[in-house]
Amino acid sequence: MTNNGDIKGRVPPQDLEAEKSVLGAILLKPDAFDAAAGILDAGDFYLERHTVIFDAIGELAAARVPLDETTLLSQLNSRREAAGGISYIGELASFVPTAANIEAYARTVREKAILRAIISTGTQLATDAFEATDVPEFVACAEYDIARIASRQVARPEPSKASALATALWKIEHGQEDSVLTGFAPLDQSFGGFNVGHLTILAARTSRGKTAFATNVAINAAKAGASTAYFTLEMTADEMWTRALGCEGQVDLFSARWRGYKDGEKERVEAARTTLESLPLEVLYRPSMRPRDLRLECKRLSRLVGPLRLVVIDYFNLLRGDRHESERWREMQEAILALKALAGELGLPILLLSQLNREAKDDDPPHLSTLRDTGAAEEHSSNVLFLWQKQSIADAAQMNMAVWEDIDVIIAKQRNGPAGLRVGMKFAKRYGKFAA
After folding, report:
1. CATH architecture under which domain 16-150 falls
2. 34, 133, 187, 210: least CB-packed within 10 angstroms?
3. Contact criterion met (CB below 8 Å) for 39 and 56
4. Catalytic residue set
5. For all residues of the chain together, what is the average pLDDT?
C-alpha cells in the first residue's frame, strides 16, 4: 500500500471499489485512459498494485500500443506479481459493466489521495512544531505545504477545440480583450497589455521611474475595474500610498510636508484619497517575499476582494527564491520560473519590476542582455518593457526645474506583438505621474 500511515490505528481514507472501477473501465474501454489521466496520477491510488497497473497502462498509451489483457500483462513483465498476477487483471477487466462513469470514479480516487496527503502533512507538521524555532518561517512553510496539496484538486476541464476557436473569433470580431491595459493609449496601441499567464518585466536604471510607472499602471488598471495587488518589497505601504496620493492628485507631497499646502493642493489630495479608497487596489509591504508567499497572498486576497486581474511586484532583485542557493543567479532563475508558473496557475498577469546591470550605459538604450541577476528573466518572460531617458534630458529637466520630462517606453520583447518599438511618454517626477 502507498500512503498507508495511520493515526491511532485508523485506516487512511481510500476507496478500493473506485480504484478498481477506474482500472476496470480502462480495460473495458482503453480510450477512457485519457479521461482518467487528466484527473489523477498513478501515485493517487491507495493499493500499490493499482499504482503498478496504472503506470503500465500509461506506458502502453505513450508507446501507442493497443491495450488489452494480453498487452498489459506483457508490459507488466517482471511486475506481474506486484500487480496481483493474471487472475487479478482478469478480475479488473470484468469489474464494471460500463466505462461511462470513469471520471466520477477517478475524482473519488483523487479526493481520497488528497485527504491522505493532508493527514501525512499534518502529522509531519505536528512533529516539526515541537522543534520549530523560527515560528513565522514554520507557519509559512505549513501554509505552503497545505496550498500545494490544495492545488492538486481536480482542475476545470479544458474547452474543446471548436469552443476555443469560436471564442477566439468572437473576441476578434467584437474587439474583446482579456488583457489588462496600461491605461496609456499610445502605449496600448503598440503593446498588447498584460495577459493571463504572462510575466512582464519592467526594467530601468535606478531612479528612472520604475515604481512611479508601475503605480500609474496599477491605478489605471484599478480605475478600469481590474482588481490589482501591488506587492512592494522595498518601500512600506505608507510610502507607496503617499506616492499614489501625489500621483493621483498631482501634488508634490515631499515639498508640501515642509512648506504646507498651497493653491488648492489640499483639495486635490483629498479628492485623490477618495478616488484611491474606492478603487480595487491593494498595496502590501512584503520584504524578502518568495514566490510561494506570493501564491498564498494572492489566494488570500482573492477570497477577500474577489479574483485578481493584475499583480505587481516591486521589485525582482529583492525577491528570494523558494530554495536558498549558494549562487544568487541560480536562486533568481528558480524565482523567475516559479513566478511564470504561478501566473499560469492563478490565471492572471504579473508585472515584475527589475533593475538593469551596472554595465548598462545611461545614454544607450537598454537591451535584453542588460537585465540584472539572471538570463532567465530575458528567456522566460512574456514581455519586457524598458523605461529609458538620456542622462542629458534628465539633467536638463533638473536644471530648468521642468515639471514634465520626456521619457521612452521601449517594448524590447512582446509575446503577442512586434518588439523593438519605442513609445514617447511624459513624466512629472515630482508627482510620480506619467502621461501619454
Report:
1. Orthogonal Bundle (1.10)
2. 133
3. no
4. 234
5. 84
